[in-house]
Write a structure and sequence with these properties.
Pfam families: MFS_1. It is found in: Cell inner membrane. GO terms for molecular function: fucose:proton symporter activity. The chain is mainly α and about 450 residues long. About 75% of the residues lie in helices and about 5% in strands. Helix 6 (about 110-120) runs antiparallel to helix 7 (about 120-150) and helix 14 crosses helix 21.
């Protein structure tokens, strides 16, 4: 069945047509797989940040609030580049924007080589920021593009399927960090505790040299993906209008017109808030789970503590798969309301539980993270009725990732103020309460739209 109100404007392949609203009559499988395989690449970069936070804290002698600047640099890059990325998409194509993002990612990963030699915290933050510029292009384009590659009624499901691959990148990133950055074994903080002066500086620089190892492999994969995308025919996936001459043209809107439209869309604005809070919550939990494990169990090594993040990403993946099954049968708001409430309860256990039970809860809560980002993203874009505003609307949603720069700083401050890493998990707990409110409030619209 075709999209209501949309008509065929041109064939993409022999059996697939592009529609006037930008969607396709069927999903082109190879193209969808190519785009979906990009999703794990930003997962790998994000999970390596969790390793770097632990490494930098010891080598540069940082407090918890200062370590949060890793995430501030990372998600700050997303925030600053999302709108420019949307303008590139508007003037060119989703394919061009994704290729540009891959190139920027390669350059950013390459900066870890000079950063490991300069050996200053600021240089590493600059390299992380450069990677984030590439990732902002990738997410701004890929999230929306994935949802558009097929019939409109399956947009949410397609994005959830693509996003289900992200945890595989997270797991790959954390394993690269575990076996390459933490390859020396033991606890780095314990090893360096008795070192002073030149000895400490020399050993710290040696440890920083290890940080560039994972990025060698990432660069290789990115180059292969760039070449595959370059030779693959991709659909426009942009809404079309008919000109007076009877020809098709891409429907466009100015940035000012788009902002005015979006500011008048209450449910869209509510979705932006939910995304800002959710990304911040996810980032705080993952940023400090390793630190929580090391705080509550003094006997484990840095490498052993990273294993908890492997389990976290595995739970995230399972949560996505299970949610995808439920989302195919039940209302989005209902499924995500249940996930969010149960996630809030789990984080309460992390904050107030005894001993390692708190760490296990911090791992298990990732199950409830599973469908959150792609569902909030697609659900919020669904509320943008006029698809000529889609590119910028999607970019602003990506800008909401800046929550990942803000909330970890709050948690770091609470940890430094209270002297308890465990108690600081009250910050993501409050955030999950807000996300729960969002989906519960959306349930009434689901009933009206039934």
């Amino acid at each position: 069945m075709e999209n209501m109100g949309a008509k065929v404007v041109r064939p993409f392949t022999k059996h697939i047509d592009e529609l006037s609203d930008g969607y396709l009559t069927k999903t082109p499988l190879f193209q969808f797989i190519v785009i979906s395989l990009i999703f794990p690449m930003w997962g790998a970069a994000a999970s390596l940040n969790d390793i770097l936070i632990t490494q930098f804290k010891t080598v540069f002698q940082l407090n918890d609030a200062s370590t949060a600047f890793v995430q501030s640099a990372f998600y700050g890059g997303y925030f600053l580049i999302a709108i420019p990325a949307s303008l590139v998409i508007k003037k060119t194509s989703y394919k061009f924007a994704i290729m540009l993002g891959l190139i920027a990612y390669i350059i950013g990963a390459g900066l870890f080589f000079p950063a490991s030699r300069v050996a200053t915290y600021s240089m590493f933050l600059f390299a992380i920021f450069a990677i984030a510029i590439g990732l902002s292009f990738l997410e701004t384009a890929s999230d929306t593009y994935s949802s558009m590659l097929g019939p409109k009624k399956y947009a949410n499901l397609r994005l959830n399927i693509s996003a289900a691959l992200t945890p595989l990148g997270d797991i790959a990133g954390i394993l690269l960090g575990k076996y390459m950055i933490f390859s020396t074994g033991g606890n780095l903080a314990t090893k360096m505790a008795g070192m002073h002066g030149a000895e400490r500086i020399a050993y710290g620089e040696k440890m920083l040299q290890l940080t560039l190892q994972p990025y060698k492999y990432i660069i290789g994969v990115l180059i292969i993906m760039l070449l595959i995308l370059a030779v693959t025919k991709m659909p426009s996936a942009k809404p079309k209008v008919e000109t007076l001459a009877g020809e098709e043209a891409t429907e466009k809107a100015t940035l000012g017109e788009t902002i005015k439209y979006l500011l008048g869309n209450f449910r869209y604005k509510k979705g932006i808030l939910a995304q800002f809070v959710y990304v911040g919550m996810q980032t705080t939990v993952w940023s400090f789970t390793i630190r929580l494990a090391l705080d509550l169990n003094k006997q484990i090594s840095d490498a052993d503590a990273t294993t908890f993040m492997v389990y976290s990403y595995a739970m995230w993946f399972v949560g996505k798969v299970v949610a995808t099954w439920f989302l195919g049968r039940y209302k989005v708001a209902t499924v995500l309301s249940i996930y969010s409430v149960l996630g809030t309860i789990t984080l309460l256990v992390t904050t107030f539980g005894q001993g390692m039970i708190a760490v296990y809860a911090a791992v298990f809560v990732s199950f409830f993270f599973g469908p959150q980002w792609p569902t909030i993203y697609a659900h919020t874009l669904d509320n943008v009725a006029d698809k000529k505003y889609t590119e910028t609307a999607g970019a602003i949603l990506v800008m909401a990732i800046v929550g990942g720069a803000v909330w970890p700083l709050f948690q770091g401050l609470v940890s430094d103020w209270s002297g308890s890493m465990q108690l600081s998990f009250i910050v993501p707990t409050i955030a999950f309460m807000i996300v729960s409110w969002y989906f519960i409030s959306e349930m009434k619209y689901a009933k009206e739209e039934k």
